[in-house]
Amino acid sequence: MVNGYTAIALTKLDILDVLKEIKIGVGYLKRNGEKMEHFPANMGELEDIKVEYIIMPGWQQDTAQCRTYEELPQNARNYVEKIEELVCVPVKWIGVGKSRASMITIF
User: Fold this and answer.
1) Helix H segments across the chain?
2) Which parts of the chain have pLDDT scores under 70?
3) In this structure, is the dihedral angle defined by the CA atoms of residues 107, 17, 84 and 41, taken in order, positive or negative?
4) Which residues, 6+ apart, have CB-to-CB distance to 99 below 8 Å?
5) Contact 7, 88 (CB under 8 A)
6) What is the four-CA torsion angle of 87, 80, 21, 60, rounded to 10 degrees?
7) Interatomic CA distance for residues 64 and 76, integer angstroms
8) Lower CB count within 10 Å: N or C terminus of the chain?
9) What is the pTM assigned to this prediction?
10) What is the CA radius of gyration of the chain?
11) Which CA distances in Å does 22 have to 17, 33, 54?
12) What backbone phi and psi angles, to 5 degrees, belong to 86?
C-alpha cells in the first residue's frame, strides 16, 4: 500500500516443489496471544513474539518446466492466489527456475 505497487513478482517457486506443506507467515502474536499490528520494532519485542502461519498443502511436483500459469500444479496455483489475496496485489510474474526463460508472465 505504501509503495503503490500494482503487481508483484513471485520468484523461486520451484524451490518449494519438494515441500509437503508450505507455511506463510501472516502475523505476529505477543507472548500473551495478543496480535501485533506491525512487525516488531526492536530486538526486545522480537524475542517475545510468535509468528502466526497459514499452512497450505505443497504440490511435490516439478514446476521448472512450466511456462504458463495453467501448467502449474493446482496446489501451486492455490499458493499464488493466496499470496495475491494476502498482499492485495496481483502476481504478474512467477519464477520457476534459474534462467530468464523460466519466468511465467500472467496477462
Assistant:
1) 43-47, 74-87
2) 1-2
3) negative
4) none
5) no
6) -160
7) 12
8) C
9) 0.90
10) 16
11) 10, 23, 8
12) -70, -35
Spell out the residues 6+ positions from residue 31 whose beta carbon is closer than 8 angstroms to its own. 48, 49, 50
The conformation of residue 20, written as its DSSP 8-state character, comes to: S
28: how many CB neighbours lie within 10 A of its CB? Answer: 19
37, three cell numbers: 499490528
Q: Which three three-digit cell numbers place residue 8?
A: 508483484
pLDDT tens profile 10-35: 999 999 999 999 999 999 999 889 99
3-state secondary structure of 31: coil
Amino acid found at 51:
V
CA gap 48, 87 in Å, rounded:
25
